């Protein structure tokens, strides 16, 4: 079993995948598109990635809530993307709070010595890894304390 992690943005989708044991998240790629509303190729590429790995059982999608816990425009677009993914892929999609993941991704790149102008090349993929890793860590903790709700 694997889980796919996605960081959905206005023109990109960062993609990460779990290992089969659901311990770690690895970056896969960044899917880029010309405009926000052109999603056909994005959905098709996500379906290809799911088929490539073969054993993806669910998708974790970053949910960009506002810092005050309200739902803004980006979160609403993520909800729409979630619904479309579920229809197209036939997999459950879990919304996962992604507040500050881009900040954490930028910080990780700084610590790795990646220059700020190059951050855009990697930030969405790293954010997808952080989103998925947070979910995987929560799964592990739930199983350990007996509150497993997978």
Which keywords apply here?
150 residues; alpha/beta; Nucleotidyltransferase, domain 5; globular
3D architecture notes:
The protein is α/β, with parallel strands linked by helices. The protein has a single domain, classed as YqgF/RNase H-like domain (Nucleotidyltransferase, domain 5), CATH 3.30.420.140. Helices cover 46% and strands 23% of the residues. The chain contains four helices and five strands; from the N terminus they run βββαβαβαα. It has a five-stranded mixed beta sheet, with helices on both faces. α2 links the parallel β4 and β5. It starts with a strand and ends in a 5-residue tail after the last helix. The model has no long low-confidence stretch (mean pLDDT 86).
Please provide a brief summary of the model.
The chain starts with a strand and ends in a 5-residue tail after the last helix. It has helices at residues 40-53, 73-89, 101-111, 119-145; strands at residues 2-8, 12-18, 25-32, 56-63, 93-97.
Topology:
Blueprint: E1 2-8, E2 12-18, E3 25-32, H1 40-53, E4 56-63, H2 73-89, E5 93-97, H3 101-111, H4 119-145
Parallel strand pairs: 1-4, 4-5
Antiparallel strand pairs: 1-2, 2-3
Helix pairs in contact: 3-4
Task: Assign the CATH architecture.
Answer: 2-Layer Sandwich
Summarize the helix and strand pattern as letters.
EEEHEHEHH
Radius of gyration of CA atoms, rounded to a whole number: 15 Å
Q: Structural class of the helices, strands and pairings?
A: alpha/beta
Number of helices: 4
The order of strands across the largest sheet is 3-2-1-4-5
Strand content: 15-25%
